[in-house]
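ok so I'm stuck.
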Amino acid sequence: MAGAPLRVACIGMGWWSDVLADAIKRSEMLKIVACYTRSAEKRAAFAAKYGCGAVDEYAAILSDPQIEAIINTTPNDAHLATTAAAAAAGKHVFLDKPIANTIADGRAITAACAKAGVVLALGYQRRRESHFRLLRGQIEAGMFGKLVNAEANISRDRLGKIDLSSWRYQAAGMPGGVMLQIGIHYVDVLEYLMGPVTAVSGRLAQLVLPGDNPDVASLILEHANGALSILNASYASASEFYLMNIYGKEATAYFDLHNGLRLLKRGSDRPLPLPCAANDTIVEQLEEFAAAVRGYGRVEVGGDYATTSLAVISAGIMSAHEGRRVEVAEVLQNS
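replied:
not stuck anymore, here's the structure
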């Protein structure tokens, strides 16, 4: 895409804001021109690190005609107010997942951006990993035949590494704990590969970390095509680990962090490796956002999908609390 880079302002200065800002620096399609957070110290540090202006009021960003878009990494419960204000000011929004903590807020965010005619993109970068893109193509080509089952794990070690004053590790700021914070990434990948989820059975536990939020979670996902998936998410494991196994009638794919992607076809006695070059998923999604703002194509994950994705997690949380299977439609209809 030719032309001047998209001029963006970053709001909400936390560790993930730096991850996105680092990605922006790796791209020629976006440029950070301003930043805002309530902490003067944090915004000064961010401005110095990324060579942008620091403003002491969000209103200054909203009123600046040179700023075209917002990179929003504010707390989940601030997503509606900050995004709606940006949309009303004609600013496009790249919003980190989840879209919100509630379905009502997710819908309101989506509606505000649609009404204002601005692009809303959600940060679901895991689906963009080259191994998952390859699997999606093979599934669509019919290599797997009928999909029947999947199992996934997304785990990290957070013992001694969390700040209990952070909203990310509090039940009020991140309801569902580890499942909403990182499990939602692999719920998205499972839907991307296996199809929409219609019902969830969930369990949550707090086993290792201090505080008031689950650090271990498990979901059984029922897909619209009849397949079943199992997802485990943990902040209480010994190390970082990712796993995604996809089972079809004609082939099975195995992916994990340490061994990469392997494929076992019907009639074979051992899986064969499928080399996948590493790709810069965060740059890709930011550049897709920038292109959409300029009128080239559309974003892959927008507000409607992100709200339904949140409903899957919400169904899992409800299931864990009430001890029953919960349909995603029930969450959407009653929210």
